[in-house]
Amino acid sequence: MDIKKILIITGAALLVFFLVTQPVQSAGIVNSILTTLREGAEAVITFVRTVFQS
After folding, report:
1. pLDDT tens column, 35-48
2. Would you say residue 1 has pLDDT above 90?
3. Nearest to residue 34, comparing CAs of 46, 44, 26?
4. How open is the CA angle 19-22-40, to the nearest 5 degrees?
5. Measured between alpha carbons, how far is 43 from 46 in angstroms, rounded to an integer?
6. Given this model, what pLDDT does residue 54 score?
7. Over the stretch 5-35, which tens digit does the pLDDT of each residue have?
8. What are the Cα distances from residue 23, in Å, to 9, 26, 27, 31, 37?
9. Which of 21, 22, 41, 48 yields a CA-CA distance of 20 to 30 A from 15?
10. Is the pTM of this model over 0.85?
11. For helices 3-21 and 23-53, angle between their N-to-C axes, nearest 10 degrees
12. pLDDT at 42
């Protein structure tokens, strides 16, 4: 087994452990990540619209 595969499996196991032991905090983190991604996408859309309206 190579080191990359071991790190991926370890990371996935830690993620599952965190999700199971602290579901409320996990939901908050996922919600904040999705909000950030949505805001970033909206900013890109606004930029592209502004560029092509000129």
Report:
1. 999 999 999 999 99
2. no
3. 26
4. 65
5. 5
6. 67
7. 999 999 999 989 988 999 999 899 989 999 9
8. 20, 5, 6, 12, 21
9. 41
10. no
11. 110
12. 98
Closest CA to 44 of 5, 1, 52: 52
Q: Which two tokens stand for residue 52?
A: 């092509």
Q: Which two tokens stand for residue 37?
A: 């991604």
- Cα(54)–Cα(45) distance, integer angstroms: 15
For 30, the token pair is: 């996922």
* Amino acid at residue number 39: E
44/54 Cα distance (integer angstroms): 16
What is the C-alpha separation between 18 and 30, in angstroms, rounded?
A: 12
Structure token digits, residue 44: 């890109």
